[in-house]
Amino acid sequence: MGNNNKKNATRHNSEKKKNTVCASNSGISSADLKDAIVSALREYEQEKNNISPEGINRAGGSKNGFLHTLIIVLSMPFARKKTIKGSETVKLLTSSLLGTVFNCLRIAGLFITVMALAAIGVLFATESKTLAFTFKVCFLVMTVFVSYLFAGLFRRVSVEVENISDESLLIAFFAAVGTWISIIIAAVALLK
Fold it and tell me: Are 155 and 106 in contact (CB under 8 A)?
């Protein structure tokens, strides 16, 4: 019985070698085989995600994201139930709102930077050079640096928010920003 198992194993191994030799002698180079496998994997991913290449270029390659958002918003009341698939609208609107919030914060940071620079100029023109003058200038220089740093940070965040593809992460980020905004509004209301 032990000999039969060895004979079967030997016969099975020789069949594998024959199949391997036939596949390698069929005239397909390894580069062509690799390209075919990569192409098949790409097609599988496209079918899995149910996204056409035109849709990817139209949504991601658009230079005017605002126009694309406006078209989607204006066509929402007239969309047919059959044509609505996935949650692209939620993702697009959430990323647009977050991008708008961070762009407004960037503009506010740049405005504070310009105003602090103007205040430094006014200080040099109007005040005498005392110890209080030095503290005011140091405070304004730090304000310029911090506000400019935050303006750049908010610019990067607004671009990154528009590139987020995970809807759950985007919605969680939107909820966090909404929470911060409500805390700031409540604090301002308490101070009045």
Answer: yes
